[in-house]
Write a structure and sequence with these properties.
It catalyses: Hydrolysis of (1->3)-beta-D-glucosidic linkages in (1->3)-beta-D-glucans. By secondary structure, the chain is of the alpha/beta class. Helix content is 32%, strand content 13%.
Length: 446
Amino acid sequence: MVRAPVPAALLAGASAVLLLLCSFQVAFSLSIGVNYGALADNLPPPAQVAAFLKENTFIDRVKLFDANPVFIRAFAGTGVSMVVTVANGDIPGLAKLPAARDWIAAHIAPFYPATNISLLAVGNEVLATSDKNLIAHLLPAMRSLTAALAQAGMGKIRVTTPHSLGILAASEPPSTGRFRRGYDRAILAPMLQFHRQTKTPFMVNPYPYFGYTGRTLNYAIFKPNGGVFDSATGINYTNMFVAQMDAVYSGMKRLGYGDVEIAVGETGWPSVGDADQPAVSVENAASYNGNLIREVNSGRGTPLMPGRRFETYIFSLFNENQKPGPTAERNFGLFRADLTPVYDVGLTRTRAAAVAGGRRWCLPSGGASEAALQANIDYVCSSGVDCRSIQQGGACFLPNTLRSHAAFAMNAYYQSAGRHDFNCDFGKTGVVTLSDPSYGSCKYPA
């Protein structure tokens, strides 16, 4: 995420407000995407993540920040749709069709259509880099990749590029929204024309988290507030996310492209921050992300775009313990590394699992050290528990990592010992979950 400045007064929207501690029945109607980042050393293997999302959540789309073949292959056969990202540094070379053909042949063709790749994101927040070479080659690369996909018989895969809201020169009130001079007609107008012609979405990354002040916090996290009035339209906005979307729409309409679809590539709120960030909390993260999910699933659109639906990807799937920067950067996740929710926004099917039989599994906690994981494996496998599945050639040998092997061993012990919580303690390195960690041919006993 490139942190382009967002005007602090970008307030707005519509929505009254409960924390989205949804009932199981309501959750059936949910549809949302997540950004699947992997800057962490404690995450489960991609195949396990893919199985978890398909079987245990209502998340139906994932967005990668690269084209890692292990991650793409892991989602084969799941039906979960995927956004694959071209690295910023690859953009100049891909402006030529032969190079674009080679890139598609290497990074997309081996996995499609088994993996439901629905979007190709060309770079990430390229305009915010101010790199003139990248910016000059961005649209040509998008065109070349579109042509390469069509020639390879994969024309259903759409092409876009995510933008930070730094592309806006004005945004409050939303009716005044306009793009930055120099980018508006020279870069964004031709790009919007491309999106119109190819029927692909203009993707933006709205982050009320980076635009709120102490005075406007409730606007930002969908809590009750008096709203912000736009005198030009007579609209009273009551959440910042909707205002940001309408500001983007106003900028597009000003260039004559108000009909182009808009998608949300990233948005979110962290659950843990530093001492000087009192607005960063589990409660506020649950309020923002929960009500965001409800907002984009409502189908009501925004005041300036009534009835529109926005393909939306929350940042992020996991807390990522190796991300640089302040504490908040490592705590945007909806889930911990052990696949348990950081907070409840109604996306998991665990209530259904509990109703269906109350099955539980034991997994390593996110903070378990490698030494502890090895000790757990040694203890379990010397206690008479069958560990053949994590030995060479076993169904759960791959991925050949301590965390993966420890997860299977700890769960096998937990199940054989009677499924008491204390059987999953392992010196405070185990955690009980309702989410089945099985993946592929590796089946965890329950």
